[in-house]
Please model this.
Amino acid sequence: MAYVINHGDKTGRSFHHFVDLCTKAYNLIRVRWHDVLSLLYLSLPMGLTTLKGTSELKYILANLSPTSDTFQAQQTFTKLIKESHGNISVKLNFWVHTAAQWVSNGNAGVAPLPQPERKTVSETGRPMEFQVDQYEKRVRTSIKYFVYRPDL
Model:
């Protein structure tokens, strides 16, 4: 992972930025740990192969460490990333992905994703009329805003 992010180096500025973004994302998920577990609990009856029972939910809860403070959780997560560098399964995974890319000759033959059409107001003109079907008022600590949704 670090090898690819740093274009051949083991450590570097890009990798440190990557780790920083990962720890921020981890802490954002930790803040909503109850919602994450609720969604996973609701998906238990779906029969997902990797989510078979409450033991997996307990494992996820333990790894989200909701009782730790943000700094402590960030340190733990960074430690896990650094420990993964010496892990044999991570190195094997990297090697398999590298071999698969070599065999498939990069992205040759893969169709690009379709790009959404973007039009400016000068190209299409201003809308003459519109209708709001639904709206929600949301309030956060310092911001009050509205979300407008089309009726689907």
User: Anything to note?
Assistant: Strands lie at 134-139, 144-149. The mean pLDDT is 77. The CA atoms of residues 104 and 110 lie 10 Å apart.
